[in-house]
Design brief:
Oligomer: single chain
Radius of gyration: 30 Å
Largest sheet: 9 strands, mixed
Number of strands: 23
Number of helices: 20
Helix content: 25-40%
Low-confidence stretches: 335-363, 365-414
């Protein structure tokens, strides 16, 4: 047993070294802090220079306001900052850095040099190593600040041995550099490594910074990217999301920027994932870069030592707003074109955005839009049996239809943009529909396409049946609940009732389920309730019931859709194409598979060496 030691204050150097363990993990951590300080200075251009992946040195130079010579020693003190002065300013922090501990932590575990000059003043230099700060010296310098960090953890060999190879450390530094470039498109950035220019991004003049996003994330991302732009009360959501067909096995291209700060946030990530639920195949991960802007009083940035996490005042509203903003874009997106046509979807599919769903709007105090009427026979039309002869069986005739179905003979009279999917030519092996449009050949998986059409109609019919139909349990189901579950059941009682789940307290540590939604009458009520409460505890909201209902509707649609080897007439095939053009998310089936592909004329010419 260790002998009992007296309580005594720790030395300042040891305190700074402990802080460095929280703030500075590796060269990339130091680079992030230095970039934050440079951006806070009002810089319009930043230059980063690395040696040996940052193991040798990390240097950040900016053209910002600079630091007065007399304040340079203060910059290296723990918790010394110009960015906040009281608790109110902390709650409304508008800067990336505000704790004033990063430079002091670096000075305790490395050699650091700061050269800075204010406009109209002389330049000054200060040097520190292992917590020892030298006197300020005059020096020649341009306006702005240059901070150089050398030999990170040179005095802590136990920490330094945990660092990786120079190439791996450089990769992490480059990732931090790219995240900064995404979050701040108005700043020009350059990254040098061992004397070579590796990355360079000029200022983005576009109003939403989408050009910078495309430049940072690369052509492979941009080729499948769709722009997002929505304003929900005080929250603005913008950025780029990729089509579901570009999803990856790893979640390595998912960027969340909140008030120009790159963060990891489960609320936003879960909202995006929920938006992709109907169109993502298997366990694949979507690619996206979303920038959220909202008043500083609605978000708390002081929840993580590295400031890489935030807490929203109303996480449920943010979750719903992000989900519906992404859902709208996915619903309006066109199909998957071939490589010869990487441009935007056909103009006929670019409809104005509909009113945002009511959950997110009401959470931010936005007026609820009136729901559009849905015909009573929508459910029956979704399952209308396929007719024969020359009627269009995959679409019941509807007075709201923009125009009657065209036969293949109408191609000469039709305008190019009237029918983005063109006109049916033939059926291939009872599985695919071959059609011709202005770009070339369209191949449609008829079962997948009809499945999506039926699914969307079923959802519309089910959602029109408001409020949610409730099925009381003949024998209420009681279960032991944790303290967190008991609190969530009490805090979100109204939300649970609106979802069709009635939960009551049955004792100090138990809950009882008295009713569930009619559509999920056969589900395990206890498992359903626990899943809902888990979502409410972690996210502040839950889409679990809607996901379960959608799963049932998806299964119904799959069984009700036209099957393979069913021979269709040209009228039936054209009817299916017209339905696809009017159906949201028609480019993906319910399981995330594409429903159609475009083979451009240039690709067809290349197959037969035409023009060579």
């Amino acid at each position: 047993m260790q002998p009992q030691r007296p309580i005594r204050p720790l030395p300042d150097v040891l305190i700074s070294q402990i802080a460095a363990g929280e703030v500075i993990e590796r060269p990339a951590s130091a680079l992030r802090e230095l970039l934050d300080n440079a951006i806070d200075s009002g810089a319009s251009a930043l230059t980063v220079r690395l040696e040996q992946g940052g193991l040798g040195s990390v240097q950040v130079e900016d053209d910002g306001c600079g630091i007065p010579a007399e304040e340079l020693p203060l910059a290296l003190l723990r918790h010394a900052t110009s960015k906040i002065a009281d608790l109110d300013e902390l709650h409304h922090a508008a800067h990336l850095g505000f704790r004033g501990e990063a430079l002091a932590a670096m000075a305790a575990v490395a050699e650091i040099e700061i050269i800075s000059r204010r406009a109209g003043a002389d330049g000054a230099r200060i040097h520190a190593s292992a917590g020892q700060v030298a006197a300020v010296q005059p020096t020649a310098a341009q306006q702005g600040t240059r901070v150089t960090l050398r030999q990170l953890f040179f005095n802590l060999p136990a920490r330094r041995k945990f660092l990786k190879s120079p190439q791996t450390e450089y990769a992490w530094c480059a990732d931090v550099f790219k995240r900064t470039a995404i979050a701040h498109p108005q700043i020009a950035l350059r990254l040098w490594h061992d004397g070579q220019l590796k990355l360079q991004f000029e200022r983005d003049p576009s109003p939403h910074g989408l050009d910078r996003l495309a430049a940072v994330l690369g052509e492979a991302f941009s080729a499948h990217a769709l722009p997002v732009s929505a304003q929900i009360g005080p929250l603005a959501v913008r950025g780029l999301i990729c089509k579901p067909t570009a999803a990856r096995a790893r979640a390595d291209v998912q960027h969340i920027i909140v008030n120009n700060r790159w963060v990891r946030d489960r609320t936003v990530a879960h909202g995006v994932r929920a938006a992709y639920a109907d169109v993502l195949h298997g366990a694949l991960q979507p690619q996206y870069a979303l920038l959220l802007d909202l008043p500083s009083e609605l978000v708390d940035v002081n929840v993580h030592p590295a400031k890489s996490e935030v807490r929203f005042r109303d996480s449920s509203a943010v979750h719903q707003a992000v989900r519906h903003a992404v859902e709208q874009v996915l619903a309006r997106a066109g199909g998957e074109a071939s490589s010869s046509h990487p441009s935007a979807p056909p103009a006929a599919w670019e409809q104005p955005p509909s009113a945002l769903p009511t959950t997110a709007a009401l959470a931010f105090g936005v007026a609820r839009p009136s729901p559009s009427p849905i015909p009573w026979d929508a459910l029956s039309r979704a399952y209308a049996p396929l007719a024969t002869a020359d009627a269009a069986p995959l679409q019941a005739q509807d007075s709201a239809a923009p125009r009657p179905y065209a036969q293949a003979t109408d191609l000469a009279a039709a305008q190019p943009d009237d029918f983005p999917l063109g006109f049916a030519l033939a059926q291939l092996l009872g599985i695919y529909i071959l059609a011709q449009n202005r770009h070339g050949l369209v191949i449609v998986d008829m079962h997948a396409a009809h499945e999506r059409i039926v699914y969307e109609r079923l959802k519309a019919a089910e959602q029109a049946d408001a409020p949610v139909a409730v099925q009381p349990l003949l024998i209420p189901a009681a279960f032991a609940a944790s303290d967190a579950e008991m609190g969530a059941a009490e805090d979100h009682a109204d939300a649970l009732r609106s979802l069709g789940v009635e939960l009551d307290r049955a004792g100090p540590s138990s809950l009882v389920v008295r009713a569930t939604p009619t559509l999920l009458a056969h589900a395990d009520p206890i498992r359903l309730a626990r899943g809902l409460l888990a979502d409410l505890i972690s996210q502040g909201t839950s889409s679990r019931l809607q996901e379960r209902r959608n799963a049932l509707l998806s299964s119904m649609a799959c069984h009700g859709a036209v099957r393979a080897n069913r021979q269709l007439t040209l009228a039936e095939m054209n009817g299916l194409l017209r339905d696809m053009e009017r159906t949201e998310r028609a480019d993906q089936c319910n399981h995330g598979r594409p429903t159609w592909r475009q083979i451009g004329l240039a690709d067809l010419d290349a197959l037969f060496l035409r023009g060579r």
